[in-house]
Specification:
CATH topology: Nuclear Transport Factor 2, Chain: A
Strand order of the largest sheet: 2-1-6-5-4-3
Number of strands: 6
Order of helices and strands: HHEEHEEEEHHH
Shape: globular
Number of helices: 6
Distance between the termini: 38 Å
Largest sheet: 6 strands, mixed
Amino acid sequence: MSPEQETIEDLYGSFARGDADGMERCYHPDVCFSDPVFTDLRGADVMRMWRMLMTRSDDLEITLGEHSADGSRGTAHWTARYTFSRTGRHVVNEIDATFRFADGLIIGHEDSFDFWKWSRMALGAPGVFLGWSPMLKKKVRTQSALMLAAED
């Protein structure tokens, strides 16, 4: 197993245990992160996001699926199961991640998932009817950015 593949396992193992410090050790200080909600986080903001997400649900369950790394790049499929705190609705989010590595650490991390599917689970009727729309995606992004800013 490559050191980068071990880093992927350490990242999600730490996440599953709620160990933010363990996750942080997997990231390069200059890391860039993106997903459908948090579109451009850099450096310390990446860990602020993970810490915030870990505190938002009492039943967060993380499962790492297929994953690989070749030295400078890697991929992983992972699943997050949790209760969405704003609505009390149960979510099972299937996520595909791509990574870039520098100095054996993750310097680029991009997660992708089906936002409409997520919004139907997390938001209920508004997600069913508007989850496909740029308007709802923008609203979720804005609210998430405000929550992250409040973490300061």
